[in-house]
Amino acid sequence: MSEREETAVSFDVVVVGNGSLGLSLGVVLARRGVRVAVLGQPHRPGAASSAAGAMIGTFGEVTETLLASEYGRTKLNWAYQASKLWPEWLDSLSPDTDGGELLTADGTVVMLNSVGLPEIDTANYRAIRRALGEYGEHFEDVDPEEIDWLDPEPTARPLQAMFLPNEHAVNATELLIRLDQAFTAAGGTYLPHEAATVTRDGDRVTGVTLSDGTALVADQVVLAAGAATQTVLDTLPDQAAVIPRLISGYGVSALVDTVDGTTAKSVIRTPNRAFACGLHVVPRGAGQVYVGATNVISPDPRSTALVSDVLFLMDCGVRQVRRNLGRSPFRKLQVGNRPVALDGMPLLGETGVVGLWMMTGTYRDGLTLSPLLAREMATQLLGGTPGIDLNLFAPVRRPIQPFSRADIVNTTVTHMMATGYETNWMLPAELPLTIEHYLRLAYTRIADEFDPEFTPPPELLAASRIHLSIAQSLRDYYAAGRAVAAV
């Protein structure tokens, strides 16, 4: 045994990542008596959790595409189960209260306005209503003119709206503080460092080495660092080659002090839109709101906001929600990086190295799913049988592709066109049809060049034209997947 191994700190489980998923898993494990360490810098640079609107929403996120595949319906069902766990989860994180003070919104208003494309906005609005009906979940149609605090410009006025009384939002900053406190109170060890490498002995994990050189010994290591997970996974090239690579769904959000000191009572949002979450304004206490809408695929996590994305975000908020937001001061601009796997699906479960697990790739659903995934992953780590089928999203897998190439290309083209309409472009009426035609030809050619069978999700197909590194990662992943399948 080497001197480093003799002096190494030992745990049962090391969780790499201190966002909502990693910390939630740490809390559950610590409460079950496991010697567990959670790693991560306290200020969580670029993490999705820190910049999130933290809408605890199941149905507000529903899209027509989500309902059209087994994988999408599985994610919807998981989100529904998770939503039922949140009241008890918040209560458990708040020793002196029931956790209700962490809620910042009383329900959610989903509005269908005149800004987007009917193929996306109207279709997704109808999909939300359909899913609510299927689950027997209560909602109310409301008159858009009677929505409290809503004051859009006339050309962006809502056509329809519904109120979802059971879809709330939490204060993400305070939630992470409570998770920190609950983890240490349960006996967990928090280490304010990043993991530099995963260590292994043959086909079995042995621990991690921290960025300061400290060695941690553990029989189980869970990679749950969001978009930053890929850097750690790359220290095991054989695993990185056969697991869908993680890239970033970079987003910008803004905390705004309203000029008139008022705030919305409920979340006000649109259905999900082109390659992104819908525009959403979330109350954050007296005289303050959170504004979010952006999702831009990036090869690597970003730490700063682009001017173009800030302009787009605030133009949407001002035009579509409340005109006087344009005269309101910024409190803070935030940047977050959602973890997006190359096939768009979560990475949940054990890798090809015994004892090395992944809990990431959840895209926009990580915070919402955190109580459920923490419970089920903890059960599996401890040798039990989870109540949900995590194997559906096992990290080592053939690329998941729920739809045909033609369907994916059509969706990509529609969403690309929608980005133009959302930015209020002014074109002759016939020109969009020409643009759409040539986009379809271009994306079909790009998809055909990637692989004869596999096609990336629409947002990645679009991003691969801009980012050559994403295109190369897709080609490498498809080739590796075929090599594994041939063995």
TrEMBL record:
InterPro entries: FAD-dep_OxRdtase, FAD/NAD-bd_sf. Keywords: Oxidoreductase. It comes from the Bacteria. Residues 12-378 form the FAD dependent oxidoreductase domain. GO terms for cellular component: cytoplasm. GO terms for molecular function: oxidoreductase activity. This is FAD-binding oxidoreductase.
